[in-house]
Description:
Layout (H helix, E strand, L loop, with lengths): L32 E4 L5 E4 L4 H8 L2 E7 L2 H17 L4 E6 L2 H5 L23 H18 L3 E5 L2 H17 L6 E5 L10 H8 L5 E4 L4 H6 L5 E3 L6 H6 L16 H7 L7 E6 L4 H18 L6 E6 L4 H10 L7 E4 L4 H10 L2 E5 L3 H7 L4 E5 L3 H10 L7 H6 L6 E3 L5 H13 L1 H17 L4 H9 L11 H10 L5
Parallel strand pairs: 3-4, 3-5, 5-6, 6-7, 7-8, 9-10, 9-12, 10-11, 12-13, 13-14
Antiparallel strand pairs: 1-2
Amino acid sequence: MSHLFATLFIGKIREKISMSLAAIRWVKFKSRICLKSPLRRFLWVSSKSLIERAAKEGELRIFIVAGEVSGDTIGSRLMASLKKLSPVTIRFSGVGGSMMSKQGLKSLFPMENIAVMGIWELLPHLYNFRVKLKETVEAAFRFQPHAVVTVDSKGFSFRLLQQIRARYNHQRSDGPVHFHYVAPSFWAWKGSETRLKGLAKFVDHVFCILPNEEEGCQSNGLAATFVGHPILEDILELNMGKETALHGRKITGNGEDFRKKYAIPSGVTVITLLPGSRLQEVTRMLPIFSNTMKLLKDSFPELVTVIHVAPNQLVGNYIARAIHKWPVPTILIPGGTPQLKYDAFNASRVALCTSGTVAMELQLARLPCLVTYRAHLLTEWFIRYKAKIPYISLPNILLDSPVIPEALFQTCTPTKVAFSLKELMNNIVLQQQQIIAAEKVMELICPPNRIIHNLEQQGMRGTRPSYTPSMIAASTILSYAQR
């Protein structure tokens, strides 16, 4: 955080700043300018900062790229925070989904074009992947951004950042500052930590969402800041108007309203299903989920499933076709409806999910769950060979304990999943263990006090909700000083 704000105060800046330098009403005093805070205070930054260079040109240009649903959410929140903090008009370009489009991004192409996960799964899409990578590099170079921000999707993101940096180096011209949001999972793979040294050649700063990632990056020469896990921002968005803070660490939906809305009788058992956000994983996991429900309906004759559909048109179309042969009554919950999602969580007895960010959402809702995962056989073999941790779900990884049951790879069959899910549904002790563990998980992923203390020392004073992961990341970007 050495690039954050120095503390001097001066008057207001207009929120709207025109494109021409003559019309820019930015305040300069002893080679420093100020950023707006969401609390209508002003935060001073060094004259070498990214925001001052942008102010001289009349706008801040940020090229931002996300390749999957979770990244789209992170990207949209970061864009919103940047607009709140910046005294200079911001113009965005890049790749994103529906959430980022609401913040003003016109995506170069559908985000789903680069939403491919795995090793062997990538092969059929390799040509298109390269075409989209080249298209994105060209677009970034034409845009002439002050900063490039990539969100997760490291396969695409790191190639993009590397090629942009190489192109500017070839022309011997100053290029944009490179930020990457969501550190690579170096702690999960054998030999990955040593590869962090290579990232420093084309990544200037990493925003870490897990504890200990910051230290791991910095010890390998990669500048990093632990901003907290993005899931925490769900708390603020869904508890709007209530007495709350990031450290409230819980969202309680309205299960009763959900049952009334969908006419679900009180005695009916509801199971939440989250098959994934990428088409390749949904097509692999949804048939397993369907056959699992077929096995469970004899034990739970009054059974209703709630399937959460990611905001991905291809996924939505696939699930819409699949439910025509679904073995039990089902309700589809569209993506981009967080309140409805958490209401469904509250109405459910347990959840069955594909490994991903949703495991953290279920912890936030205190809904006991079973985590599953299947991939191509060769990808599964690679994971077994390279992984240095025994778990795949983030709560288990953070706690270093199998609190949440996992059905992975060859053990992820309808018979075994049905057995494990039935055991969880009938065992109050197992459910309580997950609920109790969730409090510890939420504590671990909160922004560290030292980061909040630094912001308070440098002028960003207010209540805890001000210090969201996206706000911390945005303030770091705007005050970044190029060496």
